[in-house]
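Thought: the user asked what ferredoxin--NADP(+) reductase looks like in 3D. I have the sequence; next I should run the structure tool and report back without guessing.
Action: structure_tool
Action Input:
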Amino acid sequence: MAAVTAAAVSLSSFPAAAKAAAASPPSPSSCVTYPRRSAARAVRVQVSTTETAEAGPAPVKTEKISKKQDEGVVTNKYKPKEPYVGRCLLNTRITGDKAPGETWHMVFSTEGEIPYREGQSIGVIADGVDKNGKPHKLRLYSIASSALGDFGDSKTVSLCVKRLVYTNDQGEIVKGVCSNYLCDLKPGAEVKITGPVGKEMLMPKDPNATVIMVRRKRNAC
Ligand SMILES: Cc1cc2nc3c(=O)[nH]c(=O)nc-3n(C[C@H](O)[C@H](O)[C@H](O)COP(=O)(O)OP(=O)(O)OC[C@H]3O[C@@H](n4cnc5c(N)ncnc54)[C@H](O)[C@@H]3O)c2cc1C
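Observation:
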């Protein structure tokens, strides 16, 4: 009876342990979680055994378990027609004078009314109207604070925003509407917030899971 053994290692922080698991005879479907070496590292080895055609039993199907912590995640509590009005508590430029471009870190009060999770975004509606005289459309911004907020009291939400400035085909300097509005916000100013939005980027359920983040070069995120 020939058997094919497949071992899938989510991230090989412990190659020796992973090799040992692959070498030893696995049960038909087993999942081994190795003790973590530090808070940021963990390895989870999933070992499954598949019988070949001439052998007997069909492969054991394992139930698909959601890896995300998405139970009870709130989305779209505040919509563009009735946004939450928060207040800018602080706004700090975090890029140096010689850096190409400008990025700002800002904190808004929420009084706990925007129950967001790490990985979600909020919408911001800039003050003023567009070229058609209509209110500006919201722009999305990834939340840059933990769910507790920068002050640890679950009453704030933070953003990290790159100021968009570019030169158009006519050689004119154009300023992005919302990023410039946000980067210019002064402490005390009101800000219209929607959301929270998004369930795609939530953290994994396993607090010790390794998270690899890959970024496209566009604005601050
Ligand atoms: C899910 C999500 C999360 C995001 N998170 C963040 C974040 O955390 N931080 C952040 O800074 N941004 C973030 N963004 C981007 C953000 O939503 C805005 O798109 C950005 O701030 C620009 O908005 P604006 O109103 O300033 O520019 P707008 O006034 O909307 O102008 C943008 C438009 O200008 C034009 N344009 C831009 N650059 C050029 C160029 N070089 N040449 C010619 N035309 C150009 C394009 O047509 C573009 O659509 C996120 C976007 C999404 C979808």
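Thought: the tool returned a structure. Summarizing for the user.
Final Answer: Structure for ferredoxin--NADP(+) reductase predicted. The longest strand covers residues 84-93. Residues 121, 139-142, 159-162, 164, 166, 168, 176-180, 219-221 surround flavin-adenine dinucleotide (CB under 6 Å).
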